[in-house]
Records
---
Amino acid sequence: MRTSSMIWLSLVVVAGGYLAVRTSNGSMGRAYVRHETFDARASFEEQIQKIDDEENTLAAKGKTLPKKQILARKKLTTRLGDVDGITWTKVRSANRSELVGKDGNPDSAVVFSWSRTIGLWIAVLATLAIMSFLWGDNIFYKLAESVVVGASAAYAMVVGFWTGIIQNLFGKLVPGLMRDSVLPGLPGGQEAELIYIVPLVLSVLMLWRLAPVGGWISRWPLAFFIGATAGIRLVAYLDADFVQQIGSTIMPLIVSDKELGLMVGKSIGNIIIIIGVLTCLVYFFFSFEHKGLVGRTARVGIWFLMVTFGAGFGFTVMGRISLISDRFSFLFYDWLWLPKPGIDA
Amino acid sequence: MKRTVPLVIAAFTGFVLIVSYFIPYAQSWGEEAMIWFDILAAVAFVLGGGNLLKTHLQKISNRRAGWGFSLITISAFLITLGIGLAKMGVHPAEKFPEFAWSGDYLSQSSGFGWIYDFVYLPLAATMFSLLAFFIASAAFRAFRAKNTEAMILLGTAFIVLFGRTHAGIYVSQPVVDWLTAISGAEAGSLAGLRLDRITSTITSVFILAGNRAITIGIALGIVSLSLKVLLGVDRSYLGSEE
Amino acid sequence: MNDSMPTDSDYQTSTETSSANGFDVRNLDRRWIFLVMGFSVAIPMLMGLVFPEEPSQEVLDVFDTVENLEDGSKVLMAYDYDPASKGELEPMAAAFVRHCAEKKHKLYFITLWPAAVPMLQKNIAILNREYPEYTYGEDYVNLGFRPGQEGVIKVIVTDIKKLYANDVDGTDLNELSMTANLKNIQSMDLIINVSAGTPGAKEWVQYAATTYDIKMVAGVTGVGYTPLVPYVPKQLAGILGAIKAAAEYEEAVLLEYPQLRKNPATQEALRKMGPQLVAHMLIIGLIIAGNVIYFTDRKRGVS
């Protein structure tokens, strides 16, 4: 075996051993959750009691409970029988500092979570797999990339289904069915709006794009999409990005204030802004050849644009570095449990 | 029919939305059209997922290079989809405990939320964070001040990179203090020469000017493109003749 | 990404060249640069390098816009970012939540990005943990996500309940006190948008703030900052650009509400400025080094 391979193997074994020892004695890589039991009947009774207390308070002042509250109490009371026996355990993430309560005793509600601990290690392996691309293209990176492509497409599909298709399509077409199943909170007075058969048909036509024949029909909903986008963007861009921007550029060349007098800095700034906007617009005007006065003006415009792009580059660098900071923070503090300077002892 | 009907649909929809902006009576038509638009946007997600399945299944069946990774992609897709649509691990909403499917699909206890927190989030976040390393590599290999314009660009980048950290103040404050001392100016009057203040000036004057021109230019481009689409001049979205 | 990346043989070639001719910085294996970049972020982070921040005028414009609202004002918290940009935007999103909670504003959480739904939950968790007096339905509500990008804004500026009949828990908006009489977002006193791209701040400015004259501030990534500058101050009251602005905003909030300094989570962006500074110096150094090599070679006539 080559020397370099021996060195790498030794490093991996030592690092692996270190991680194994720390993990086994609970010094890193664990996730905790806080458990809380939810009892549906108890929750309803609590809400009814709250309304009763409000009624008593109002009665003491000679007032009556609003009709809305009376109706709500009636509904809750009617449903008490249906929710009897329905309980579950609410789970939320907990920090390891919550293992011990404020009184110094262990908090029994905070427990070790196998699913989140396994998830944490999967997240770490995924992070390291993506970072391995910095060494070179490899199978771990390709695996991670394949997973993210599949998972993100399915994520968007699930979100679109529950928030768009169920809520706004079926919720408007068949509100009764939705109210009895997945959307019990739909407003009670909502009736079926049969006009929504149109978007239902358009949706089916859109999905026909995947069919082996007749895919051309998907152009109809696509045309609706494109037409709508063109319609709303035409007005929005004309207003916000054209008229308003020109209005904002019409500014005083000489700025003065009653108390401060002539404001030289602001005046120079305004003059530079107007020159900058005009020269850049001259540069963008490609119908005239950029020669002579037009060429010189366009060149000044280019300089303004170079300053803009240089600043844009600076800001972009700033943004990317904070992203890697965040990932390192995850690895160092959420996984390895290294002490946070200034926070952990 | 195949190309005329879509042109009519696009034009009609667009003009309804433009009219609804200006005529309050027509506002409800515009709202309705936008709600249909939002529904179709949700269906577009489904179409995207379906297209992904179709592409990768074809790759697997044709045994093209990298078909193994397509298998991984489809597996991740189907597992995430199944867990999300079935609302696995999702408890009912607390207000409607008798309705088993009423809960939030992305609640903390849900399988879908687990996939987001421990699979999707670390992968997506890390993938974009790699850009920091490539920017560093590109800074060494590619960013050359070959001409005046490049020098202006890099010079501005230096000022912004310095000015947007404490280094800008650390380096420029002593210089400003020295200039104030030798010129006899009032204390604080030359504070505008500090690197962070110069960065602010660059932002509020030069970046404003350049980006305003770009914004106006893009607005004109979008308006002309939208008009071309609505008037049927631009038909590229219809694809090839069929 | 895969097709454009060099293969292992490219690395071998550059290494072999380096080893054959001695160390040649022109053919420096870029993995060394990656390693130095990694250290320049990791070491300051582990050392806890932190610098004082002084809020700039741009940041104070945003701060004052939120601070000068009457206590209990209605604020639309439009958070449009995903995991890819959470490192940059989560600190400013959290700072906005804490600032608004200190002012007892009524918060309406909404998003146009499907991947931002858990981000809303994380920010709401701040309210649950640190402001237990905040009651759901009375002080804050989570409207969640609807597909349609700018189409969503177009609907909710005129009639929000046509698109949002329920909140994320399925509760009828007519049953929550803060949404029962809510017709549209024109009644909002302020829109706070934290955005990573499209749809985001630009769309909120175009379809809501400009058309209906709703006051708005935005927090964006570094990449998205410069295109929004032209909107300030008439269409956009202020912008926070990148992690530096987030750190300054945190400092502004801590100066006004010093009791928050006891909570380390309120200084997340401030802690990130240490690695930021070192990495910036590295980038500047690399650009200078690259140009020195380039001009030296040009002078010597080396191609």
---
Amino acid sequence: MGKDFSKTQIDKLGDRLKKGNITEADLRLLDEYRRSFTGAYETVVGIIRNEVTLEPTGRPAKSTTSISEKLLRETIRLTQVQDIAGCRLIVADLIEQERVVQRLNQLFENVTIVDRREQPSHGYRAVHVVVKAAGRLVEIQVRTAMQQLWAEQSEKLSDIVDPAIKYGGGDVKIQQFLKEASGIVADLESIELEIAGDEELRSDKKRKSEVSSLRKRMVKVLQSAYPTNKRST
Amino acid sequence: MIFLIEYDRSSGQLVRIESFPEPERQDAESARLELELELNRLGRDHEVVVLEAASEAALRRTHRRYFENLSELMAS
């Protein structure tokens, strides 16, 4: 695994993170483990910058909070977590998203593409491309601007209302609003895809009005998800 | 640029942001560890994360939840 730690040692650390009561020694070992992804992370980000000519926002290492929550939520061990290191690309629309995903698929070996557009995860729509570099996995999140808007709302609501919201739990009404908004984003992106490259369709007044009303509806639905007893406005 | 962020999830508030030039990634990671150790000693449950972006403006576009409240998120 690494020069200073074994797989068993890291998985035992994961068990302790799940239980809480993290010691200073645990934080130091986790830090060392996360730093072992730096080489892989730098390789992946460098390739994206040079070959895809996009500037990702990188997260060289997942936060302790996020790792602990993931281990509690899922049945995986710490050494199986695929997004210890990662980065995010925000692109304009579905066409650009598809182009970037295909390019990443060409550029890296051992690629796993997790497409959450057709089958959203609790409303979350995006494409995650997991690649291997320097013996480590790195997750590249590719989101369209609208998928990003939805995700940021969902994450913020999870922060201030209930962490379960992001994963389909928590307040039922908030879940319904988020799922409805996610559906509207999918409809909007579908229309954009349909009219892309078709000047006649793009200038069609009916289509324009449809897109405009869907956008307004999405904003309204997301605003409806605002909790009345929120701790932060 | 490398950014060290301390974020209080329960209030949705950014507590601190510190920037480092890209060659100082190791320093940013060391600062992250020191901050995590300090928060752990204080029993404070804040998220600490190191992010990298071309600029703070770029970071604010891709990780808006650290910087904006719900109303601001919808204002774009």
---
Amino acid sequence: MNNPPDVTQDSKEYEEYAHGVQKHVRGYLIVGATLLAFTMITVALSYVDFGAILSSLFHTNLTSTQGRKANIAVAVLVATFKAGLVGAIFMHLAAEKRLIYRILIFTGFFVLGLFWLTLLAWYDFPIFR
Amino acid sequence: MDASASVEIHHEPHGHDAAHEHHELGFWRKYIFSTDHKVIGIQYGLCGMVFLFFGFCLMMMMRWQLAYPGQAMPVIGKWLPHIFGAESMPDGKMTPNFYNSLGAMHGTIMIFLGVVPLAFAAFGNFVVPLQIGAPDMTFPKVNAASFWAFAVGGVVMSMSFFVPGGAAKGGWTSYVPLAAFDDTGPGRNPVFNGQTLWLIGFIFLITSSLLGAVNFITTIIQLRAKGLTWMRLPFFVWAQFVTAFLLLLAFPPLEAAIIMQLMDRLAHTSFFLPAGLVVNGAPVSISGGGNPLLWQHLFWFLGHPEVYVLILPAFGIVAEILANNSRKPLWGYKSLVFSVLVIGFLSFIVWAHHMWLTGMGSAVSAFFQTTTLLISIPSVIILSAFFISLWGGSIRFTVPMLFATAFLPMFGIGGLTGIPLAFNSADLYLHDTYYVIAHFHYIVAPGTIFGLFAGIYHWFPKATGRKMNDFWGKVHFWPTLVCMNVIFLPMFLQGMAGMHRRWYDGGQGWGVANEHTIWGLTGFQWNHPISWAAWIMGLAQIPFIINFFWCIKHGEKVNDNPWEATTLEWTAPSPPPHGNFVQTPVAYRGPYEYSLPGRERDFTMQSEPVEPAERTRRKPAAEPVLA
Amino acid sequence: MEIPYTVSTRPDTGLWNAKIGIWLFLASEVMLFGGLFSAYIFLRIDAAPGMWPHGVLNVPVGTFNTCVLIMSSVTVVLAWAALKMRRYRAYWWYMLATISCGIIFLVVKLAYEWPQKYDHFGIYIKSEALGKYEQYLGNAYAAEKELPPRLEITGHLHNPAALTDPNIKEYEVALDPLNADPTNPSMDRPHFLPLTVTHKIATIEKADVERATMFLPTHNAYFASYFTITGLHGLHVLAGVIVFIYMWLPVSKKVYQRNPEHLANRVEVSGLFWHFVDLIWIFVFPLFYLL
């Protein structure tokens, strides 16, 4: 979609190109609707007491804090899925060039490094904890 | 498919761009608010040099206090209180607070207003598009915005000296909680105080660097001339490419941290402040819940890649000059490229070696020690490749070559003395001592700054069409080299004796600095020769300053390629016009084709076509393409 | 002098300049918000039990804002598609829709959500005085049900003069439902519909107060992060709206007439920025409103 044909609007070649773009439009609308639906799902799931569900499933007694952690995990997973849709479809990443992927993979690595290593340093603290 | 030119013109009727060419820009658009990379490069260069000089002056003032603590500064001691405020130096004697301001601002100004703008922005802007055969950067307006953001940041930082309370005093590292409470309270404006202005100025500087980084990376990827493949790029371009990535990805977490520190100062949040803090004897009314270590992690996440930002452009400059002045190709080009990429990558995961004394546990310390030691390997590879590049060369000691050659052992000392600091056990003793100061100054001062001097002498003819004077260049070089070593070598000794890096009295009141002698002088007494060497070194810069400005108009005129160099910038006129090249260059060969056998001259330019006699299995006569 | 590859693609990379430029910029933005999110994580992990509030933000309004931003992402990509298909009128309407959604988001946040917070009041009770206010805190009940302790009394401050006047020795607070009826099991977890302040008034003596402020950034680590992240995000939304307005005004039609692909590229690049802004909100919303 990055190199439209070098002709004016009236030609047949351009019409084919425009038709190709048109097909993607339907995809955008579907993804948009999916994102809205999953927003409602995120909100609904946040009121589900996963702590109680997991406790009864595994016959243990989870505290409210641990139950909250389960809710966090679920919410982040759903958010990641939504973010993935935005990235892949709206931001055209699914059809993007290798160079962009490389830039993003390095960025992803470094931001995870920032999170993980700082977390590691936080917890590996013999004096305070 | 010759994509570029034809498609553009096809879409633009009426020769719109032709009209642009003939439209003469007024003075302001041509010289002040220019979008031409060469003008912007020179603007960055001049500002960078002014700030380097200013930071140097701050250091010279500090050196007085260190050598003669509590004594009135002679000659200028009377005027300084008029400039910096009466509370800074009553009777010409430096107060501890003012000393701390000088220390914090010396570091900040040298790094962020001096070296980075000069090494990355000035040299990068001027040289990189010329070396890759491009007409300009990909985003000229963004380039101009980047310079002006830097200028605003510089003004804000400079302004901070003149507000009540003076400039920031919490070190260039601005550790909280001190930095959160410094310059607050009665007599201090909530916004116009040293620390807050430091933070605000920094936001502009970071913005400038981010915009610049985007420009550099995109330009190097997209605007390389035909035939200029990645492995035919001059090493200088590779170095700038990696440096840009470091700036792009490492600066933002610090920007986030700065925003949070501003919130702590202005909105009284507690991002970095734990509960129960007591300041000046009274408990502070904050919500607590924050952690000072969060600031340190976010700061050093930038702080470590930042030091590679300081050195990599210098590596690039030195590489070009060594090859050019030894009349032979750089040895180990592939290892150099590989090493600089590995340095770039690893530099993101070594930062906590600046935090050995914060009480981190053994697992995370082991991780960071390992990565820190690993990163020394590519640095050694690069330095070794440079040394080996000299072997068997026809070395000519032009002024750039003097600086570039001196860089090698100076950086060697700096790098090797970093190794003990990589171990948290050795660092337990050496942290915050003069040893650390000596280590990093060896890298930045007789290291990077020598690289920058070399670059100025080397590319001055391209920018002006004239050479700087050789005699005065040597007068500049030799005293500077000697003084650098007299200043920083004894600091290793002072550090190992236990002298702390931020004592405002130079150790006069501390036992470790006065009880034992090292090589004949006590730690405190070593401050005297060091300070005198610093002031003499200041004098040695005067020939350089005069040489630089004088030769712009009155230097010896030279042709387009006075150094007989091979890279593409030397095919352009000196100085290059708007658009750089008379004919768009095409690269047929590698960047360092010096002393090719069977040729008349000892250098072959990158743009010279490959002759039938030269074709080998590795150099087929393929038509240059975009790759 | 023309810079090559501003509109057409360079053959070996397959990309035009601004596309690389914007992705590089977005990479730096990932690191910027990454720094802020890492602060959120550590502040939350480090918070003592009971010190990290839940359910203090208006979820229906937040959900509405999330939907507004998602719709604006849809309209901006449709605007770009319209440009690629050379339908300028459609582009103009979709762009207007995007700008409107952006403005609605900002207005809801700045004119409703944030002011609602400044009007709400919270008091942290000193640990030694917790027993005295048990009727409002219900800590025995919380301990029994293994819920985190309640350390805060929240609601509307009826005597705001108490904040500045040292002669007034107590706060009169119209209590939130949790403090009005702390042992009610329905208060154990936050609700979807925001509960209104009750009419029950509590008198809290200043001597028992650890800390008392409105729900401002200074109140606790939660609000510090909330206001900072949503504030920075809001600035990005504003920047996006300004750029879109520029692309929608007649001056951009001139670019379209000269080279429609050039405008399409500019819209694509700004659209990518806008999607990123939406992406950040997709994470901010659950982390602050729902969890």
